[in-house]
Amino acid sequence: MSAILLxxxxxxxxxxxxxxxxxxxxxxxxxxxxWGHGYLDYIVEDMWTSLNKELILxxxxxxLCGAIMTEGTAARRLVRIVRAMTAPTRGGLGxxxxxxCAVFAAISGSSIVTMIAVGSVLYPAMKEAGxxxxxxxxxxxxGGTLGIIIPPSIPLILYGLVTxxxxxxxxxxxxxxxxxxxxxxxxxxxxxxxxxxxxxxxxGELRIALREGIWAALFPVILLGGIYSGYYSPTESAxxxxxxxxxxxxxxxxxxxxxxxxxxxxxTAKLGGALFPLIAVALSxxxxxxxYRVPAQMVDLVSAWIDNPIAFLVVINLLLLAVGAFxxxxxxxxxLGPILMPVAQAYxxxxxxxxxxxxxxxxxxxxxxxxxxxxxxxxxxxxxxxxELVMSVLPYIAILVLGLIIISxxxxxxxxxx
Length: 418
Prior knowledge:
The protein is mostly helical. The protein has one domain. The chain has 21 helices and no strands. α11 (175-192) crosses α20 (386-409).
């Protein structure tokens, strides 16, 4: 009964549109008062203990690295390479947009940053080439969602933090599901533009694009290769990525100036200043919930209503799809990750596989109103009407739901590389 009241408290505060920090602090205080000894000063101690982890350093480092590469010319150079390679394909620009989003996502780790960086280049290019506005818009807005499943992904790092799951395993697990989504989306782009004339391969353009963009193209290889080979940890990889980005943009591309760098650092610091209090409180809540066995009580509660893993999977996917429509991905992970993961384990789901399922669900939430973050940002970035935006992403929502079903039903896609 106490667990139900805790869930009701969280939902009530969400309905009242309270800040996430307030919601989490209220939840922690409730747990301390109901299951603990009423010592609310333990909250501060728990927050300090929660933040005292080396892995958390990777979050601001990846954020700053992605911001530097976005402010520079990495996105434009990568898009030029992919565009030259996909030119002979029908719907080649659409394919280029999706693949460019996937590649740039491995640099920025952010859905919104990926959408803006790639969309600002390829959205006008597709319109100029005769693609419909709805297809061009839907492709760049939806392609940006690949940023939260393709490693290194900030949401994957946050899920690993709050559930104490290996970040390296989560990064590995994101590769094949990411490929499934890329194949499905590119397949639709080719089919939707099957009447578009294909262009001839311009080998001269490809050589120039590779020569000018090779350093940006090597970025994911250096970053992910070091992690997966075990040569350095995710935190060390974030530091390596940041140094590499600085060297490329300052000394190779020479597009970064001290003034731009100062602005990038300032904006990243603001983002970190908003994110880190949430992480501290969420991790503190995780400690409290574990100490007082709240997840175990949630397992008993859910087990009384749902008696088999398939039914649980259906219910949890519907729940997460609904949550993704009303909450941002980071908020949903920080609140629900530590509560739902033990329940999923009780039904036989691997923590890594469940993490990927959760991320893909929330990825779809980037495209669903009323709080679809990609829709909100695209509304301003591409200056389109909201109903046009929603209609443009509907085919991709269907594709992502199909991908979610495949990824949920075939655990090997998430666990095969571990």
